[in-house]
Specification:
- The complex is a heterodimer of chains A (about 200) and B (about 575).
- Chain A has two domains: about 1-80, ACT domain (Alpha-Beta Plaits); about 85-150, ACT-like. Chain A, domain 2 (Alpha-Beta Plaits, 2-Layer Sandwich), CATH 3.30.70.
- Helix content of chain A is about 35%, strand content about 35%.
- Chain A contains seven helices and nine strands, in the order E-H-E-E-H-E-E-H-E-E-H-E-E-H-H-H.
- Chain A has helices spanning about 15-25, 55-65, 100-105, 130-140, 160-170, 180-185, 185-190; strands at about 1-10, 30-35, 45-50, 70-75, 80-90, 110-115, 120-125, 145-150, 150-155.
- Chain A is elongated and about 55 Å long.
- Chain B contains 22 helices and 22 strands.
- The chains are: A alpha+beta (about 200), B alpha/beta (about 575).
- Chains A and B meet through helix 1, helix 2, strand 4 and helix 6 of A and strand 14 of B.
Chain lengths: ~200, ~575
């Protein structure tokens, strides 16, 4: 099963490398990873899509929390969240096919970013299912190149709700309240960590 | 220097280390640490020059394990740093608080494959609790403060500070750092009261309970609280290898060591328990080889300061994240003793049924051993073994003769397991072994570090001829720095544990790569360094040689020529449960 984990980390050189090293050393299967600065320039948000069962997920979450540069880890599983990914795709497109592609991109609320004599570059955002569906529909035209950002995600609702929900979710796991507060500064809800 | 209070990065580091109370640094300098060595000239701490950086890291570990204070080691960039790595990895696995300082090439050269450049921070990412590349001299006090704080709090571990040479010469004023506060780091110290109540309730109604105590007890200084728990409840208690000393083994509830080479009755107690209380132990694969089948009838309570240790291996019914000492204090307030006389009797019966092999009953006829040695049979004359001293007997003699306040360090292999089994472990921080990483070559430098930290205690390194030769050059340090440790080599002429496994795993094969021919005359080796060398080749020589070694004021190396075919039992083969130990060949 695929899970979304969101981590707030120190925005410092070497932090991404440390997290990547942890993931590799522990043998976790990360499907996608995206990183970007938050509104606080000292903090970045990393969004992981992780493949694995609850046990693996619990270890990933705990191991990430164990890193000193990781400020807060949230597991979005079973939570109400918004996820988006951006894709850029260069599609083989003789002038005669342009209309079809433009039509398709309209349906997907995407855009045409670039036109060449024999290709068109399109842009779309959406959740993973939508992006996958779009790619399948573009495939028959001939995909020349593709670039995807990986998922980014945020919980729905305001920050207070998030923290309340956070406790609820962790309690879902085999380990009720005890692990939760110990596991992550995240769950204390304050920890001096601004929610981006 | 433009103004009077400006110092160099090196001066700042030396001062920051002194403010942390550092009394000794083990290491080897090099090109990029020269400014640092200049600053150390006037520092209050001692600098001990080792012969290899790996040994420097192990000395820092030995110092930390024996004293509970942070050990410090230093190496130059490149090969100096890579040589430290085994020791850092060892400290990471065994939660040993050390701070490693490495020199680095100048900031502008980083990434250019400069002379003696290696990506130290990158290489040590997954074997340090945290690491730092210093970018400005002014940040050094804060980094040092954080490094010592991280190394010694929560689940302790190694922290590395990589200092580029230009930063070590950069001028900056000294601003003492405030108490470290790191937003991504706040270990949970107090256990959740509801979970502690649940644990107490499980203990009160248990019929076959057992405690498994690990090094977390020693790291949090909780041996008195543990003793109180055991006295209040009468729960039988086994320890892990690194937990030895958490409870005195002459206590009636003590079951001694659990695990692959643990006591069979202790392993049975765990396997047939209806409640296992893990305290500061991580249920690693030497204890729970098959985590899915571990203690199949038991509820498991797990107290640990590191949440990642809980649920990583065995399933846990009552997890308690917190500092062991604080959790036990709370637990002791509410815990009640269960009625478990029948269970205690059952364990006592197992204890009678499975006595610890002393070597007398095993290895009488090891024809297969001789066959496997062919065509080389250096230890047989006319088919008769030329050696007679049982390694277990040497350890029992050490146990009887050495002062009970002694610290024993060991290396890795058969001698390590025999030491764990046959010594009487009474005090915390008195048995120092490389547990998680299993580092041969650890014991001798760890003994030197322990002795530097505890100069008033007898420090003995029990080692093997294979392990000792991995860091035997540190004899120079023992002699030059006047560190009077006693090294007892159980010399069996082979990598005994690997040989034992070769026999277990590959029946009928000849020994491949395990016979240590060409080892030096260890007595002459000791003498070459200026230490006392002694040898025992016959049973009647063991006690007098040990007595002489213990009485000698300086460093001593003892070559105990033990039987070579001896194997270490009991042994739970890899992939078997704790009730499936082999008792003999």
């Amino acid at each position: 099963m695929r899970h979304i984990i969101s981590a707030l980390v120190e925005n410092r050189p070497g932090v991404l490398a440390k997290i990547a090293a942890l993931v590799r050393a522990r043998g976790y299967n990360i499907d996608s990873l995206s990183v970007g600065e938050t509104d606080d320039p000292t903090i970045s948000r990393m969004t992981f899509a992780v493949i694995g069962d609850d046990r693996i997920l619990e270890q990933v979450t705990k191991q990430l929390n164990r890193l000193i540069d990781v400020i807060k880890v949230l597991d979005f599983t079973d939570r109400d969240y918004v996820e988006r990914e951006l894709v850029l795709a260069k599609i083989a497109c003789p002038p005669g096919h342009r209309g079809q592609i433009i039509e398709l991109m309209d349906v997907f609320r995407g855009r045409i970013c670039d036109l060449g004599p024999s290709s068109v570059t399109v842009e779309a955002t959406g959740d993973e299912k939508k992006i996958e569906a779009l790619i399948e529909l573009l495939r028959p035209f001939g995909i020349k190149e593709i670039a995807r950002t990986g998922l980014v995600a945020l919980l729905r609702g305001d920050p207070k709700d998030r923290n309340g929900a956070s406790r609820g979710v962790r309690a879902r796991k085999s380990a009720p309240p005890p692990v939760a507060p110990g596991t992550s500064p995240a769950d204390s809800g304050d920890a001096g960590a601004p929610l981006a | 220097m433009s103004h009077s209070n400006a110092l160099t990065g090196s001066d700042i580091l030396a001062r920051a280390l002194a403010e942390e109370g550092v009394e000794v640094i083990f290491g080897i300098p090099g090109g990029v640490t020269l400014p640092l060595m200049k600053a150390f000239e006037t520092a209050k701490f001692r600098f001990i020059l080792t012969r290899h950086e790996q040994a420097a890291a192990h000395m820092a570990e030995g110092y930390a394990r024996a004293t509970g204070r942070v050990g410090v080691c230093l190496a130059t960039s490149g090969p100096g740093a890579t040589n430290l790595i085994t020791g850092i990895a060892d400290a990471f696995m065994d939660s040993t608080p050390i701070v490693a300082i490495t020199g680095q090439v100048a900031t502008e050269k980083i990434g250019n494959d400069a002379f003696q450049e290696v990506d130290t921070v990158g290489l040590t990412c997954t074997i340090t609790k945290h690491n730092y590349l210093v970018r400005e001299a002014a940040t050094i006090p804060k980094i040092v403060k954080e490094a010592f704080y991280l190394a010694s709090t929560g689940r302790p571990g190694p922290v590395l500070i990589d200092l580029p040479v230009d930063i070590s010469k950069q001028s900056a004023p000294y601003h003492a750092a405030a108490q470290a506060s790191i937003r991504g780091y706040s270990p949970t110290l107090d256990g959740h009261p509801e979970q502690i109540r649940k644990a107490a309730a499980l203990i009160a109604k248990a019929e076959r309970p057992v405690i498994l105590a690990g090094q977390g007890v020693l790291l949090s200084g909780a041996h008195e609280e543990l003793r109180e728990l055991v006295d209040k409840t009468g729960l039988p208690i086994g320890t892990t290898l690194l937990g030895l000393g958490a409870i005195p083994e002459d206590h009636p509830a003590a079951l001694k060591m659990v695990g692959m080479h643990g006591m069979t009755y202790a392993n049975y107690a765990i396997h047939y328990a209806d409640l296992v209380v893990g305290i500061g132990a991580r249920f690693d694969d030497r204890v729970a080889s098959r985590p899915g089948d571990f203690a199949p009838q038991a509820r498991i309570v797990h107290i640990d300061i590191d949440p990642t240790s809980i649920g990583k291996s065995v399933r846990v019914d009552v997890p308690i994240v917190g500092d062991v000492r604080r959790v036990l204090r709370e637990l002791n307030k509410i815990v009640r003793a269960p009625s478990i006389d029948a269970w205690r009797n059952r364990i006592a019966e197992w204890k009678r049924q499975f006595p610890l092999p002393t070597g007398e009953a095993t290895a009488k006829d090891r024809r297969d051993f001789r066959d496997r040695l062919a065509p080389r049979q250096p230890w047989y004359r006319d088919g008769v073994p030329v050696r007679e001293i049982k390694p277990q007997a040497v350890i029992r003699a050490i146990d009887a003769l050495a002062d009970p306040h002694r610290i024993i360090t060991v290396d890795v292999g058969q001698h390590q397991m025999w030491s764990a089994q046959h010594l009487t472990h009474r005090k915390p921080r008195s048995f120092i072994a490389s547990g998680g990483l299993g580092t041969m070559g650890f014991g001798f430098p760890a003994a030197l570090g322990a002795k530097v930290g505890c100069p008033d205690r007898t420090v003995i390194n029990i080692t093997g001829d294979g392990s000792f030769q991995m860091n035997c050059h540190e004899l120079a340090v023992a002699v030059m720095e006047k560190i009077p440790v006693k090294v007892i080599i159980l010399n069996n002429g082979c990598l005994g544990m690997v040989r034992q496994w070769q026999e277990t795993i590959i029946p009928g094969a000849r020994y491949m790569g395990v016979i240590l021919e060409g080892s030096p005359d260890f007595v002459k080796l000791a003498e070459a360094y200026g230490a006392l060398g002694l040898r025992a080749a016959r049973n009647e020589e063991v006690r007098p040689v040990l007595e002489r070694a213990l009485a000698h004021p300086g460093p001593v190396l003892v070559d105990m020529q033990v039987t070579i075919e001896e194997n270490c039992y009991p042994m739970v083969p890899v992939g078997k449960n704790l009730d499936e130990a082999l008792q003999h060949d």
